[in-house]
């Protein structure tokens, strides 16, 4: 299922099941049925329809929202092998840890707020009537070393735009991981009908600004003294790229 698909279910119980799974990320079917108070036969029937319609899937004994985001890709640099793939609910703690480390090091305010949000919700991917949220991760030996995140409000006037954050742990930079993550995120955004992707960074994060400029992002505006970091006022640089 693409994140731009209209959410129509045809039955109140079916909608309730989807929303429960979407809100929790990955759920045990028996626990979901018990929590929702739907009779077992009806629950199985509605889950079967949701699977048929590409809304839900079952992996490792848990129900999850189906999101069509492509396959795992393998890359090699001179001395490193890494993979980039759609994130899974099980990546939650690894992504939070990576974001917090990069955010602290580079004063990446927007990314830090993303980490706070997913840590609070305990849910990684979202697709509901209010918002869509997608992650891709870079992994080395199965461990998350980088991420790209896209968030889009389901509002008609903003339906052509998505916000992006991207980062790589310091010890894994210089291998092209960030560029591949950014490319994967923008490719997904374009294939899902978004026309512009944007993000904001403090002016002190010169590495991030240079990285984005090297990938054809442009500065749309600067808000003076928007952040206060370590007691000092810092400008916000608002950047974007047209797809």
Describe the structure.
It is a single chain. This protein has 243 residues and is α+β, with helices and mostly antiparallel strands. Helices cover 35% and strands 33% of the residues. The protein is built from 7 helices and 11 strands. It is globular, with a radius of gyration of 19 Å. The mean pLDDT is 91.
Summarize the structure.
With 243 residues, the chain is an alpha+beta fold. It has seven helices and eleven strands.
Write the layout of secondary structure elements.
Layout: H1 12-24, H2 29-36, H3 40-52, E1 56-59, E2 62-65, E3 73-76, E4 81-86, H4 92-106, H5 109-121, E5 126-127, E6 131-140, E7 143-153, E8 161-168, H6 177-191, E9 196-202, H7 206-214, E10 218-229, E11 232-242
Name a few traits of the molecule.
7 helices; two-stranded antiparallel sheet; alpha+beta
Helix content: 25-40%
Strand content: 25-35%
Question: Would you count the extended β strands for me?
Answer: 11
N-to-C order of helices and strands: HHHEEEEHHEEEEHEHEE
